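WARN no homologs supplied; continuing
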Amino acid sequence: MLVKEIMSPNVVSLNPDTPVQEIARIFREHNISGAPVLDADGNIIGIVTGIDLIARHARIHYPRYLPFLDAMIPLENPKEYKEMLRRILGTTAKDIMTRKVVTISPDADLEELATLMVEKRVNPVPVVDDEGKLVGIVSQADVLRVIEKLEQPDSD
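OK structure emitted
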């Protein structure tokens, strides 16, 4: 089975300036777990998921430092802390979105999609054509519907 057979062609997308409160409303009203963020030309520049919204309310893990002589040596990557702060303090899609978007081709098969979702821990996954244009989106719910059909015993 191919991605194009199970994807949703009608994609709910966000613009970079969509406020966080509006994003939460859109997710709830459309019963979706995430949406790509598109620029004015329709190019994918990020993705916002429910976890991005929930993370805004999670406990902050402050970076730890090791005092050594007169210096403070970071024990974690300071970039990760700055990235976490950006997301927590963000008020719009562009502030909280994941910038490195994992996408898939409509001609990929179900096995490739499942592997991508598991290994990269992504949901949903935007579906893009050869030119990189958004043509659909596929979520865990779409895959589960296929699994349900595949696992049904044949009725004679």
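The longest strand covers residues 44-49.
OK
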